[in-house]
Amino acid sequence: MADATGMGGVVSDADEKAARRRAKRLKRFDSPWMNPKLLTGAGIIVGILLFGLLGRFLWDPELVFIGSAPLNLPPVGFENLRGEPGSPAHPLGTQSSGRDMLALMIVGAPNTLFIGVIASLIGMTIGILLGFSAGFIGGRTDDVIRVLSDVMITIPPLMVLIVFQTSIGEIGILMMGVLLSGFMWQSPTRLIRAQVLSMRQSGYVRMAKLSGASTFDIMFKEMLPNLVPYLFGSFIAIATTAIVTAVGLETLGLGPQRVPTLGRVIYEAIDSAALLRNMWWWWGIPTALLATMFVGLLLVNLGLDEVANPKLRKV
Amino acid sequence: MAPRTRRVAWGLAAIITLAGLIAIPYHDPESPGARIAREDTVIFDLDRSIKNPRNFNWLTPGVKRLHGAHQAMWEPLFVLSYATGELEPWLGLQIVGNDTHDVWTLSLRRGVRWSDGEAFDADDVVFTADMVRDSDAISAREAIRFKAQIAETRKIDSHTVEFRLQKPNPSFHVENFGVLNFSSFLVMPEHVWRGQDVGSFDFYPPIGTGPYVFGSATSQRAIWDRNDDWWGADTGFRDLPQPKRLIWIESGGQENRAQLLRRNQLDAGQHLALGIFEAIQAKNPNVIAWHSGFPYGWTDPCPRQLEINTTVPPWDDAEMRRAVAHIVDRQQIIDIVYEGSTVPSKSMFVQYGAMQPFIDAVSNAGYSLPTTANVDAAHAIFESRGYRLDDDGTYRRDGEPLAVRILANTASAETTGTVDLLVEQLQRAGVDARSVPVEDGVFWGEVIPLGDYEMSYSWLSCGSVNEPWASMSRYTNSAIAPVGERAPGYNNTGRWDTDATSQYTAIVDRIGRLSLGDPQIPGLVANAYQHLYTEMPFVPLVQASKVLSFNTTYWTGWPTADRFYVHPMHWWNSTHLIIHGLERADAGKSSHVK
Fold it and tell me: Does the residue B230 lie in any domain?
């Protein structure tokens, strides 16, 4: 009995420890931030970023420039229309100006993401400031901001950006992001305003008002932290919209010209009749990379939705 | 009828009425009437839009001729045969100069009629010549050139005209009336133009003497229908051409053009990159080019060059312009833009056989540019001018980068591709170069003639094909306009005007007074060229290989190297010869589209 009790005591301790470890692990994975969609999406985006960052050290980024490689080579294992085989020196092939496709992807993919991030950062910052001001301060401030964002949201960004870019000529990556941000603040402004309007009546906000906290403190120290998952979700959605708009402009031949982006690569492929020339690698690889990027951003967005909205989580 | 049904019926009636009211103003009274079969229609490619489709005043700026007007409706007096070097008579029968080349007598063909039935005669020629001479509103290159030469035009009889020139010109007839390059001096109907203001008259609807009459036009398309009452068939000059309808359409970019050719929706295409042409031919063997194999293309009579505005610092310094010439790797342009299908330019001239003595004179005098770059020489010049290479790889002076903006006409992928490559070469050499895409109408209508550019890529030395004067005279200082005013005839748009220009002008004027074939000319060309070489108002780049596609599915008889009856530039005034040479093909037998 003593042995048995003693053994039983040992087993019970071990079980408890194991159960605690399992509970801790489960608790860790139970965190809404660790949902599979968010993790997978983030993994894809980080993967693309790493591809761009590490690729610059493992591959020659100078190969993105005109005349740095032979023309029209297919990827390794394929032949082009003239029967020329691919070369290991250019594993993803080259295009008709003598640019290396792998180098174009290594440099172009992060540039495309960067445009989206810049546009989204600026758009969200403006959206947060205006949305909080409209929702919390109300009155005339709310009227002006609401009308302004309602009017702006009806203006098609692509059309305005085409006119703008045609008139100012070539622009860089940063400028492209800044330009796009002019059309990315309206939606977060409206949505944040709606959230703030509902939060304004919350107990903790009333308490903060009663305790004499300043408007700025209430908006940005009390209310803002409660909107963090939601803001992250909006950030990703806007970045996606900005990338789609940027790719649209680039595919029309506007946007940065000497600096490669995925949209620019696709434009050059279209302009040089890559489809007709069976140069599938020229348009197919950047299109696939863009699709992967959008899937990653979508998953991140869905994952953040689950964080912000407990009803979406699986039981 | 139930109230709801009645409401729906009234609603539908209102919508139909409204739609009808809206549609009435948009009815195009000139839309082509009779349907003409595809087999009887030739579709030509237009590489730019028609800015003002209801204006046919070719003397003023804009797309007024190459959408069919001077290929189908307005006929030339003569056509210079690039194959024989002879002038082929058309509306004119003969033109001869006196011994001093300052009086020329033109004999006109009898029996020529305008499409409205009026006779074409010496009165039309004299009227047009006087109108051009006396007007300051004209800007077309062919009119400006004529105006600069003519002193007086006199009617001898109803079919003979005498031209008295301001100074002797042995090439007067070829330059002005022979479609030397793109177009020629086009005679307008006196009975329509008399009393009109040259600058504002739109000449709509237009008439001509050609075998086609104007049908309709929009900004992307122009239609011309055959005039079965054409004078040429009645007089026995030529048979009526076989096509019943000619259409010019703006095809858009290379991709669209390629797809239209592949699907037999285009019969004559503008330039395509060599690789694209090969891809089309692999899918549609009915599509042909000038040569049946590599390099496929026809050598365009206008060699490509980098134009430099010599009034804009730091490019107003001849040494800085020479530095740019050192940076340019012309072999790379050939390898990448032309896929190896052309050669570097040895001078400003097109490298045709008749030009060889003049090109040799320039080369033997040491004025040809090397094919590859010498970036070190360029760096030495930059540094001698106080520029220092910064950490970012750009030359700077007093903190300001050495920068340049190069204009690229967006109408052509060849242009944008070359400018992108030039930008790359300059960037790598430490010049902060940028490409500025400019729409075709703005490029030729504003920025180039007004001198509103630093550098641009074009072909403004174009002119000579069998003698040197036509090209060389474009850089003299005889008519330099200040920046902001229109350069007459697109001549010397870079405003090169130094002591060297004066010396150059004196020699070129002397060349202009000598007869074609005078043995002094090559030596004089070399003497004049030393000033171009030293001062570099433009940088000669490459000869241009034009891969122009013709589709034999519906029409055969296109000009090729094996059938050289005319050159293949189907947007030129000489296209009349192509149209008359076309024969209807059996579409069913020859169609193998994949």
Answer: no
Say whether B254 and A273 touch across the interface (CB within 8 A). Answer: yes
In a domain, A30, yes or no: no
Per the CB < 8 Å rule, is A271 touching B262?
Answer: no
* Domain range enclosing B50: 44-193
Which residue, among B257, B272, B276, would best test binding to A if mutated, counting the most A CBs under 10 Å from its CB?
A: B276
Q: In terms of Cα–Cα distance, which of B441, B572, B573 is closest to B49?
A: B441
CATH number at residue A306: 1.10.3720.10
From A168's Cα to the closest Cα of chain B, the distance in A is 9
Contact A108, A265 (CB under 8 A): yes
Of A97, A170, A270, the CB nearest to B435: A170
Put residue B542 in one of left, alpha, beta given phi > 0 → left and psi -120 to 50 → alpha.
beta
State which of B524, B540, B556 marks the end of a domain.
B540
Minimal Cα distance from B331: which residue of A?
Answer: A67
The pTM assigned to this predicted structure is 0.82
pLDDT in tens, B195-218: 999 999 999 999 999 999 999 999
Q: At B225, which helix (H) or strand (E)?
A: strand B221-226
**Does B32 reside within a domain?**
no
What is the tally of structural domains in chain A? 1
Domain with residue B356: its CATH number is 3.10.105.10
Distances (CA, A) of B252 to A5, B46, B48, B221: 90, 8, 8, 12
Q: Is B276–A277 a contact, with Cβ atoms under 8 angstroms apart?
A: yes
- A271: nearest CB among B255, B278, B332: B255
What ipTM score was computed for the predicted complex, to two decimals? 0.76
